[in-house]
Amino acid sequence: MNDRVSSGALLDVRDLRTEFTTGGGVVRAVDGVSWDVRAGETVALVGESGCGKSVSALSIMGLVARPAGRVAGGQILFKGRDLLELPEDDMRRIRGREIAMVFQEPMTSLNPVLTVGRQITEACEIHLGHTEAQARARAIEVLRLVGIPDAERRLRQYPHQFSGGMRQRLMIAIALSCSPDLILADEPTTALDVTIQAQILDLMKELSRSFGAATLIITHNLGVVARYADRVNVMYAGRIVERGTAREIYANPRHPYTLGLLRSVPRLDEPKRERLDPIQGQPPDLTRLPRGCAFAPRCAFAIERCRAEAPPLQSVGGSHLSACWVAQDLPQRSALSPQPSGDGEEIPSSRAQRGISR
Questions:
Q1: Which of 17, 9, 30, 31 has its CA nearest to residue 77?
Q2: Which tens digit of pLDDT belongs to each residue from 205-253?
Q3: Mean pLDDT (whole number) for 99-117
Q4: Phi/psi at 341 (nearest 5 deg)?
Q5: Which domains does the chain have, with CATH numbers?
Q6: Cα separation of 133 and 121, whole Å?
Q7: Cα 116–140–165 angle (5° rounding)?
Q8: From the CB of residue 114, how many other CB atoms can be counted at a distance below 10 Å?
Q9: What's the pLDDT tens digit per position in 117-165?
Q10: Residues with Cβ within 8 Å of residue 162, at least 6 apart in sequence
């Protein structure tokens, strides 16, 4: 099986398994996944709700809710150190300082009784040893960096006084305040309209380049992935089912689930269709996964072997991997016509969608 990730990565997740004990049984939310993030790049985790994307990020941050939840196995190597073996005091020094997280819903992540300024300066004082004046200056600086006007006055305000897009900018400002090496962005454009989505994602990409930070984007939105990700990991039922560059995933998807995700998203470079083509059925019960491929009950290409034996993640060409017994027999997706991007790279035309959501 060729599912090992590269050595020398900034973040190297190996065979990670995270589970939750419930009244209905043990939920294997993350079931033996391996992926990596290299310095300065943007990697995406893509899949439906409940596939294990967010739990993967919470596992990295050491924020899986106990006692019901626990990391049952694997390694999370960050700069060569296994985060799972570090004492809690060491993890506190890493959170916010070296790894920062932009949570999915700002209003449930921001403290409603603390001013915006205090929620930024606290991290600077703890992690960077700043004085109160230095931390305040840094807070003003990062608010300006993320495009929040009149930063000095806004420091004295509370989260409810900010719009949805501004709250998301605030979350990014908090994440950037200590200049981390890695940013985990969990559905950073949830509940935002398409125009604001594009603004937020363009901002994150530009700031990531400016600060030299690597980014992990967790999303179900393939428009986001096409425009902003360098490499993509597609998750289903707690496992990686396909991995490759953004170009490989869009031009030549080799897993039926990835094909289904692509067909359910509107495209500006294809003829108008009356209806989108959604994936039929429901995600599986993670306490009672089928014996073979977890996607087989919803798959139009499944063969008998799919229902009897779980496919390994293996190469379908170069660095492109797929966990599918019929990967090589799937219909070819027509090649996307290349368009030049702002940095001179040729990219598929679907990347011009600027994050169109489903």
A1: 9
A2: 888 888 889 999 999 877 778 888 999 999 999 999 999 999 999 889 9
A3: 91
A4: -95, 180
A5: 41-49+87-250 (3.40.50.300)
A6: 9
A7: 55
A8: 12
A9: 999 999 999 999 999 999 999 999 999 989 899 999 999 999 999 998 8
A10: 116, 154, 170
Among 181, 266, 176, which residue's Cα sits nearest to residue 222? 266
Coil vs helix vs strand at 20: strand
Give the span between the Cα atoms of 173 and 155, in whole angstroms: 12
Residue 297 has what DSSP assignment? G
Cα–Cα distances (Å) from 311 to 60, 282, 291, 301, in that order, read 26, 20, 11, 14
The closest alpha carbon to 208, from 348, 64, 344, 41, belongs to: 41
What is the SS3 assignment for 229?
coil
Mean pLDDT, rounded, for 58-75: 95
Q: What's the CA gap between 150 and 152, in Å, rounded?
A: 6
Cβ(189)–Cβ(200) below 8 Å: yes
Instruction: Give percent of the chain with pLDDT exceeding 70.
Output: 88
CB 200 within 8 A of CB 168: yes
pLDDT category, 346, cuts 50, 70, 90?
A: very low
Q: For the chain, give me the number of helices (H) and strands (E)? A: 12, 14
DSSP string, 247-292: HHHHHS--SHHHHHHHHTS--TTS---SS--PPPS-PPPTTS--SS
Q: Specify whether the backbone of 151 is left (phi greater than 0), alpha (psi in -120 to 50) or beta.
A: alpha
CB atoms within 10 A of CB 69: 19
- To the nearest 10°, report the CA torsion of 232, 171, 191, 53: 30
Q: Is the peptide bond before 159 cis (omega within 30 degrees of 0)?
A: no
HEC assignment per residue over 112-176: CCCCHHHHHHHHHHHHHCCCHHHHHHHHHHHHHHCCCCCHHHHCCCCHHHCCHHHHHHHHHHHHH
Centre a 10 Å sphere on the Cβ of residue 357 and count the other Cβ atoms it contains: 18
Among left, alpha and beta (phi > 0; psi -120 to 50; other), residue 62 is left
State which amino acid sits at residue 225. V
